Amino acid sequence: MTTPHAVLWIDHEEARLFRFTAEDVERVDLHAATHLHHHLRRDKDRKLSDPHLYESAAKHLADAERILVVGPGTAKLEFIRHLHAHERAVEAKVVAVESIDHPTDGQLIAYARQYFKHSDRMTG
Question: How many C-beta atoms surround the C-beta of residue 17 within 10 A?
Fold first, then answer.
């Protein structure tokens, strides 16, 4: 599905990706590898990142024109660093990175639609 807009909600365990138009919404669920769900003592109990989660998310976002990346913690920023190092074409499509806790699907889609409605007016 080629879409103008996408929103990615991501934490260290999972990602919910929505590609959408004014009429349609497509949801993709991604999950981190279970063997990476442990803590690092030397990093103040920060969870390990799963590069496969980031690679999969980038692959699913490749056909979007504009991407909003959101999430509750540091995974969204780690995802941006992954894009910068490995997926520059996808990185160029990211228009914003914002902190959002744990919205429902409906709340996330409404937030993203509102964001892009305002953003699209600003950019023409």
Answer: 21
Model confidence pLDDT, tens digit, residues 65-110: 999 999 999 999 999 999 999 999 999 999 999 999 999 999 999 9
pLDDT at site 90: 98
Helix (H) / strand (E) containing 54? helix 51-61
- The residue that leads in pLDDT, 21 or 104, is 104
- Tell me how far apart the alpha carbons of residues 104 and 106 are, in angstroms, rounded to a whole number: 5
Write out the E strands in the chain: 3-10, 14-20, 25-31, 39-40, 46-47, 64-71, 94-99
Is the sign of the CA dihedral 50, 55, 60, 65 positive or negative?
positive
Instruction: Give the pairing type, strands 39-40 and 46-47.
Output: antiparallel
Length of the chain: 124
Provide the token pair at 6: 């996408």
